[in-house]
Automatic annotation (TrEMBL), chain A:
<feature type="transmembrane region" description="Helical">
    <location>
        <begin position="31"/>
        <end position="47"/>
    </location>
</feature>
<keyword id="KW-1133">Transmembrane helix</keyword>
<dbReference type="GO" id="GO:0008324">
    <property type="term" value="F:monoatomic cation transmembrane transporter activity"/>
</dbReference>
<dbReference type="GO" id="GO:0005886">
    <property type="term" value="C:plasma membrane"/>
</dbReference>
<feature type="transmembrane region" description="Helical">
    <location>
        <begin position="7"/>
        <end position="25"/>
    </location>
</feature>
<keyword id="KW-1003">Cell membrane</keyword>
<keyword id="KW-0812">Transmembrane</keyword>
<protein>
    <submittedName>
        <fullName>Multicomponent K+:H+ antiporter subunit E</fullName>
    </submittedName>
</protein>
<dbReference type="Pfam" id="PF01899">
    <property type="entry name" value="MNHE"/>
</dbReference>
From TrEMBL, chain B:
<dbReference type="InterPro" id="IPR005133">
    <property type="entry name" value="PhaG_MnhG_YufB"/>
</dbReference>
<keyword id="KW-0812">Transmembrane</keyword>
<keyword id="KW-1133">Transmembrane helix</keyword>
<feature type="transmembrane region" description="Helical">
    <location>
        <begin position="13"/>
        <end position="34"/>
    </location>
</feature>
<feature type="transmembrane region" description="Helical">
    <location>
        <begin position="46"/>
        <end position="65"/>
    </location>
</feature>
<feature type="transmembrane region" description="Helical">
    <location>
        <begin position="77"/>
        <end position="95"/>
    </location>
</feature>
<protein>
    <submittedName>
        <fullName>Multisubunit potassium/proton antiporter, PhaG subunit</fullName>
    </submittedName>
</protein>
<keyword id="KW-0472">Membrane</keyword>
<dbReference type="GO" id="GO:0015385">
    <property type="term" value="F:sodium:proton antiporter activity"/>
</dbReference>
């Protein structure tokens, strides 16, 4: 079972993706989606560096909505910064964030969150994964930002992946 | 399945507002790209188009086609999801390349955050 389905969640997600894309649950599409879900993880198995172990679905859902809210707020913030940049240039700078999260998959999700949020750009991760260099569009107080970043994103990701 | 002309007014208004909002954010992203001063500042505004811009279009498409077909038509959501998976690849690549080049050129950017093992070892 483990050898046939190295990543059961990925298989299920691909199957669902196929059905949603085709907007049909006819037997033919069910079969095609199942073949995709079966073959794709097998072909990608040699590429996967680490098996994903996901826990705490409640935390995942909470993180999802928190990120959604923060992305919308950051959108408005950056939009406002663009409109007013003639009179008040945005205080852009690099911030060094000490990281406690070490799991590669968790860090991948963290990089997704920072790249999707318009106000932040993931710039560099130390080789030992202890420091993250982040470029922030408009920043008031470094310590407060780091505190929010660690509490809102890093903590839940550690609960989910570690 | 209903006819386009039978769409309720509130659906049309809502869809129109969402589409306008989305184009507003895409426009702001483009203006920001022009007005920002340096490379790293310029990496931020285009994200407006790929987040709220794309989300509003997806939501508008879901509302419009779900009312038209009298049932949930949800595959519009795949666009934001696939976008948020793929956008980091290019963003990271650009940011890393620019940092590397600016450091080589001796410009004012933070030093490497990794401590070199060979140096600390000896």
């Amino acid at each position: 079972m483990k050898r046939l389905f190295p990543a059961p969640w990925l298989s299920l997600a691909l199957w669902a993706l196929w059905l949603v894309l085709n907007l049909s649950i006819s037997p033919g599409n069910l079969l095609l989606g199942a073949i995709l879900g079966f073959l794709a993880p097998l072909m990608m198995a040699p590429l996967r560096p680490l098996p994903v172990r996901i826990r705490r679905p409640g935390v995942i859902i909470r993180l999802f909505f928190l990120v959604g809210r923060d992305v919308i707020l950051s959108n408005l913030h950056v939009a406002w910064g663009i409109l007013t940049c003639g009179t008040r240039p945005p205080r852009s700078r690099f911030v060094k964030i000490p990281l406690d999260l070490r799991d590669a998959n968790g860090l991948a999700v963290l990089s997704m969150i920072t790249s999707v949020t318009p106000g932040t750009v993931w710039s560099e991760l130390a080789l030992d994964r202890s420091i993250l260099l982040l470029h922030v569009f408009d920043l008031d107080d470094d310590a407060q930002f780091i505190e929010h970043f660690k509490q809102a994103y890093e903590r839940p990701l550690m609960e989910i992946f570690e | 399945m209903i006819n386009v002309s039978e769409l309720p007014l509130w659906v049309e208004v809502l869809v129109a507002i969402l589409l306008l909002l989305s184009s507003l954010f895409a426009l702001l992203g483009a203006i920001g790209l022009l007005r920002m001063k340096d490379f790293f500042q310029r990496m931020h505004p285009p994200a407006l188009a790929s987040t709220l811009g794309a989300w509003c279009v997806a939501l508008a498409s879901i509302i419009y086609f779900s009312t038209l077909k009298s049932g949930p038509v949800l595959h519009g959501w795949l666009i934001p999801i696939l976008l948020s998976i793929t956008v980091p690849v290019t963003t990271l690549l650009l940011a890393r390349t620019s940092l590397f080049r600016k450091r080589m050129a001796g410009e004012d950017v933070p030093a490497e955050v990794s401590s070199r093992r060979t140096e600390s070892g000896s």
